[in-house]
Amino acid sequence: MHRFLLPALALLLFPIFSRAEFQVGAAIVDVTPEKLPVLVNGGMLSRSVDTVHTKVNARAIVLSDGEEKIAIVVVDSCMMPRPLLDDAKKMAAKKTGIPAENMLMSATHTHSAPSCMGALGTNADPNYVPFLKQKLVEAVEAAQKKLQPAKAGYGSIDAAEFTALRRWIHLPDNIADDPFGNPTGRANMHTGRDWSKVAGESGPEDPELSLISFQTPDGKPIAVLGNFSMHYFGDKALGADYFGLFAEGLKERIAKNNPEFVGILSHGCSGDIWRRDYTKPAEERNEKEPIQDYTDRLLEVALKAYEEIEYSADRDLEMEEARLDLAYRVPDKQRLEWAQRIVDAMEDPEKPTNQTEVYAREAVILHTRQRADIVIQGLRIGKDIAIATTPNETYAITGLKIKAASPIQHTMVIELANGGDGYIPPPEQHLFGGYNTWAARSAGLEVSAEPKITATAIRLLENVSGKSRKSVDLSRGPATNAILELKPSAYWRLDEFAGPLAVDSSGNNRDAVYEPQITFFLEGPRSDYFCEDGEKNRSAHFVDDRLRARVADLGDDYSISLWFWNGMPN
Q1: What is the pTM of this model?
Q2: Which residue in 44, 53, 269, 471 is a FRET match for 363, CA 20 to 30 A apart?
């Protein structure tokens, strides 16, 4: 009797005591083209490069908890198309056994990398695309082969000095024409350099520099995955931009004698972000600062966050992917006829020579394509670390929305991931026009794309955590509480991420309605009277429209209190 009972008992107890350990492997694969010159995208017109400033790489991390495996690959590329990445993931899945849907592949957004995707006036380099695809597979394979016991931790720090809004709202008498001849440009990039023509920034920035660090159980660095929202620095020769310099700088500073260490800087949500702060006078903008100096200063800040990281080896994994079928903003009949006439008259339809030809060709391409398949992912590393993805150049406010609602304590948002779907502004930003909204492969998704992507990313984080999203409410300082104690008929803090409702904080349920031409979540004056613990006060920017509300019981005597900033010159 006992002979049969003991094996059964052992069988029952075995799963309880056989929990697999958390493992991490990391590798770098050189993706510098073997054939030069090579096409480089990221500009309006096509250009080719025959000199290499720095190597471009694919930097990979593979995670395992014994049951799930996840691969993260960050590539020195401007952007990468979904079909190329889907193919690479399928190939890597066959080689490694890691499910394709458990692979996150993103671009850094260097504007000096080989073109693997057609955008504006530049085509994909036909020699580079198959080369890169194979290298992505090699990166996943190499990282998996280096799996070893590990622990992980998260660090974060405010790096506001290194990023700022590049998209500004124009004054009403400074409306620019778009490439189609229409006066739609109420906002655009870099126009903040001339204060006489602009009212203010078009949205908030995201100053968070975040790090996910992986070490061996005895504290030897394996890899650090960084994330920051600053668009790019710029270089003429082929190179990895500040992303590559940052990654190599991490290695020099924290793992100098460890050749196996892999540093990575992924791209945060920065479709409307750049390094130059136009709120400052021209002489204070560091416009001539060299790229190495900028990167070294950013690394100094990153190291402060790194030194505070606390680690845990108790890291189970979960990842989920969703795909959305979204429409392109295709040209109407009149614009398509205009575009086709221009394309038909081009000497070479594959090589536009000016902005008009570029956008005419893009209109024809969007008409042909009609729709796009969008990939969004959410993943969890233990109980307190998460990553969400967006498919290309979402604005800083999108990253802030996802982080604020995430049910997981530390959430990193990596954009330019799993496809290259162009600028994805929030719906309200489409009303202000500008380069980021001009319909093209580089900015062509439907107006409602951003809220759909944001909602999906948050839902995936809910799924992988098993928790509901957090409610997003600003804290209440003494001034806020004093106002509420007065029992106002309505109190609108105007701190929403989006419209159409401005929530009434008084408890009287008199929500107001934002009219369309308004931007959201801009920084107000920093004050502990309105928000606690250093939280930034937030406000809407009324560009051309108003706030509407019906408050029927005010009577003949009432008062209205306003806190506002006037962006008009007088």
Answers
A1: 0.95
A2: 269
